[in-house]
Design a protein that fits this description.
Blueprint: H1 26-34, E1 38-42, H2 51-61, E2 65-69, E3 75-76, E4 79-82, E5 94-97, H3 101-114, E6 118-121, H4 132-140, E7 144-147, H5 160-171
Parallel strand pairs: 1-2, 1-5, 2-4, 5-6, 6-7
Antiparallel strand pairs: 3-4
Helix pairs in contact: 3-4
Length: 179
C-alpha cells in the first residue's frame, strides 16, 4: 500500500469516522486532539499519583484550559473539580477519559449530550478505559474517538518513558496504529 503524504499543518478534527473518512495515524489524531484548547480529564483523583492526574497536570502545564471531572471530589490538583462533563461551563473541545470501561460509557454519553466533538479513551499498560461499546457509541454520535494510548505519549505533554510505552503497546497491539 502506498505511503500517504502528510499535510504540512495540523487541521482540526472536523471529520468523523461515522462519515466514512479514512483512518488516521494515531500520532496524527493525537496531535489534532492536543491542538485543542479546552479539554476535560474525567477520572482525576484526590490521589495525585494516579495516571489521570499526570495527564491533567501535563495538559495544564502546556497551557491548555483543563477541567477535572470526578463526582466524588470538589477539588483536585488545587483546582475546581466538576462532578460530570455536563457540569462544566462552556463548550469543551475534547475529553480524556481515564476511568473503568463501565464509567467510560457514562462519560461518552455525557459528551454526546453536550456536543463534545472528540474523546480520548486512555489506555496504558493496564486495561484502560476503552470498550467496543464506548467506541461504537462515539462513532454513532459523530464524536472523533482515540481508543487507546495516552496524551503523555505525544507532543508537548510527552516524556521518554511514555514514548517508549507507546511503541511497546503498538507492537503488542494493545493500542491502535490508526484510528
Amino acid at each position: 500500500m502506498p505511503r500517504a503524504t502528510l499535510a504540512p499543518t495540523v487541521r482540526p478534527m472536523d471529520t468523523h469516522a461515522s462519515e466514512g473518512t479514512h483512518p488516521k495515524k494515531l500520532r496524527d489524531a493525537a496531535e489534532e486532539f492536543l491542538a485543542q484548547q479546552r479539554i476535560a480529564v474525567a477520572g482525576v483523583s484526590r490521589d495525585t499519583k494516579q495516571p489521570a492526574n499526570l495527564i491533567y497536570r501535563r495538559l495544564r502545564d502546556t497551557d491548555h484550559e483543563v477541567f477535572a471531572v470526578n463526582p466524588n471530589a470538589e477539588q483536585v490538583e488545587g483546582d475546581t473539580c466538576y462532578p460530570s462533563v455536563t457540569a462544566i461551563p462552556g463548550r469543551l473541545d475534547g475529553v480524556v477519559v481515564v476511568t473503568t470501561p463501565e464509567v467510560a460509557q457514562e462519560i461518552v454519553a455525557e459528551c454526546a449530550a453536550v456536543g463534545v466533538p472528540r474523546v480520548w479513551l486512555h489506555r496504558g499498560i493496564g486495561p484502560g478505559s476503552t470498550s467496543e461499546e464506548a467506541v461504537t457509541f462515539c462513532k454513532e454520535h459523530g464524536i472523533d474517538v482515540i481508543p487507546g494510548g495516552c496524551p503523555n505519549m505525544f507532543g508537548a505533554t510527552a516524556d521518554p518513558g511514555h514514548k517508549c510505552m507507546c511503541v511497546a503497546l503498538q507492537l503488542t497491539h494493545k493500542i491502535p496504529r490508526t484510528v
